[in-house]
Amino acid sequence: MIEINNASMIFAKKGLGKAEPNDGFKALDNISLTIPDGCIYGFLGSNGAGKSTLLRMMCGVYRTEQGSVKIDGEDVFDNPVAKAKIFFVNDETVQFTKFTLDGLARYYASYFDSFSYATYDRLVTKLQLPRKKRMSEFSKGMKRQAVVIIGLACNTKYLLLDEAFDGLDPAMRKFIKQIIVNELIDRQATMVVSSHNIVEINELCDRAMLIHQGQMIFADEIDNIKSGFGKIQLARGSGAVTEAEMKAAGLAVMQYSVMGSVAQAVVRGSKEWITEKMGTLNCDISEFIPLTLEEIFIYELEARGYGANIIG
């Protein structure tokens, strides 16, 4: 289990380093999150929200300014025992360009006692990647496939992926995701994946977290997240229901619009709760529409002013 407790990270103005409280950029602000064993957890967020920083903190690359990150009860930073349980697939592959694929396998096998050449050989054969060619000659998608193969061959309990499917064509993305899921299920491992592709997170993960400007907005099972929001449409012949009326009825309105006698709003709450509150507004027609994870992502960020300075 991965336990993140009130973790914060401040970047100094001139790069990463120790910064005074008011002299730097707070990349992460009091993040608390528990990632249970055996799940696939998705990290969502706006550009620069702190997803990659959090992943690097989780694998012990960055030390927390405050709080803690524990892997199976042990602090991960500067702890070889805890780090041996994690493989991190970075969003960059430039550091591997001088390696051949076989050379990269030997390199990681020297660091991970759990490395399985049987898994490595099987996956290389399945994906038909060249073993003796330098990775500088690989396409972006081939490099992604290669690093994922190495990560799976390391047989760690935790696999962290930062935009790991970037550069893959749609068919290969689907194939690689299926390979990863099959491998993880077979050994009951845990995966954390960061992606801008919300549909992908919805399909692949059973839990998700949304982070914005270094702060966590929500974290839960995806089904629970989607059941906590809805879009409503209300029509009333005597005049459109106002936003003030909705709020007075107890509805937590995130976004409101009106066209003629039809009012539409995005609200927080369960379907049952929202439907009950709509019933008090004496409308001629009322409708509840479930939201997708992508819609929830957009509405949550819009409610916090994300993109307003661009559109405005």
Question: What can you see in these coordinates?
Answer:
By secondary structure, this protein is of the alpha/beta class. It has two domains: 223 residues, P-loop containing nucleotide triphosphate hydrolases (Rossmann fold), CATH 3.40.50; 85 residues, 2-Layer Sandwich (Alpha-Beta Plaits), CATH 3.30.70. It is 34% helix and 29% strand. The chain has twelve helices and 14 strands. The strands form three sheets. A six-stranded mixed beta sheet has the order 6-7-8-3-9-10, with helices on both faces. Strand 12 and strand 13 form a beta hairpin. The radius of gyration is 23 Å and the shape is elongated. It starts with a strand and ends with a helix.
Can you describe this structure in just a few lines?
The chain has 312 residues and is of the alpha/beta class. Helix content is 34%, strand content 29%.
SSE order, one letter for each helix or strand: EEEHEEHEHHHEHEHEEHEHEEHEHH
Helix content: 25-40%
Q: Tell how many strands the DSSP assignment holds.
A: 14
Poorly predicted tracts of residues: none
Could you please say which CATH topology of the largest domain applies here?
Answer: Rossmann fold
Q: Please, what is the average pLDDT?
A: 89
Quote the beta fraction.
Answer: 25-35%
* Main sheet characteristics: 6 strands, mixed
CATH architecture of the largest domain: 3-Layer(aba) Sandwich
Gross morphology is elongated
